[in-house]
Write a structure and sequence with these properties.
By secondary structure, the protein is an alpha/beta fold. The protein has one domain. The protein has a 3-stranded parallel β-sheet with strand order 1-2-3. It is globular, with a radius of gyration of 14 Å. The N and C termini lie far apart (30 Å).
């Protein structure tokens, strides 16, 4: 419920900045991303999305548009996430 409230405040206020733009040493990898809601929430709390994994081609197009700096992975069963160890 808190996330929904924060999304409402961000959208309705017309602000260009996320409501919780904190700096953090954490990074986020989105698995089974769909529309990218968890990646968006992670960005708001200061965790940049460094990679995402989504099988659906339409969702991939959406994620490519909104998370341009993140590495893209399609099929989670063939992806080796060891390259992100320690990041």
């Amino acid at each position: 419920m808190i996330l929904q409230l924060n999304v409402f405040i961000f959208v309705s206020s017309g602000s260009k900045q996320p409501p919780f733009n904190k700096k953090s040493n954490m990074n986020h990898i989105g698995l089974f991303e769909g529309g990218g809601g968890f990646s968006l929430a992670a960005e708001w709390i200061g965790w940049p999305t460094i990679a995402w994994c989504e099988y659906n081609p339409y969702a991939q197009k959406h994620l490519n548009k909104h998370f341009t700096d993140a590495k893209q992975h399609g099929d989670i069963t063939t992806t080796d996430f060891n390259i992100y160890r320690g990041q």
